[in-house]
Amino acid sequence: MSQLPWGKILAVTPFDLVKILITAVIILFVNKVQLFSDKLSALLIALPLTSLLAMIWMWHGGQTTSRIAGHAEGTFWFVLPTLPMFLILPWMLRNGWSFWSALAANCAITTLCFWLTVILLRKFGIDLMPK
Hints:
Keywords: Membrane, Transmembrane, Transmembrane helix
Distance between the termini: 9 Å
Organism: Luteolibacter algae
Protein name: DUF3147 family protein
Order of helices and strands: HHHHHHH
Helix content: over 70%
Strand content: under 5%
InterPro entries: BV97_02767-like (IPR058117)
Shape: globular
Number of strands: 0
Number of helices: 7
């Protein structure tokens, strides 16, 4: 982590502000749709809109197709450990768990699933967390 170029990461350009605005508008739109339709908002949020936007921003920023492909592949593997949350959280909420305790438990479960995925995939030569 110490090798990351924090100065470049934290620098904000005018185009970054445009990206933030577009991304925020999409999230706000989905949130507003949720007020009227849980299922439609779930469908919209299940679409990989954030990933698509990220790849568009990467392409616009001059990233190579190889880097974008790596991002897409990494996203696939990182989505898998989050999937149990979408079944466990509703079960907990419907069975008397408070929102915050269910959310905290699901964060812990997702973290555990994430690390299990990393360890399992390493056995198959896929390293999601290079040293």
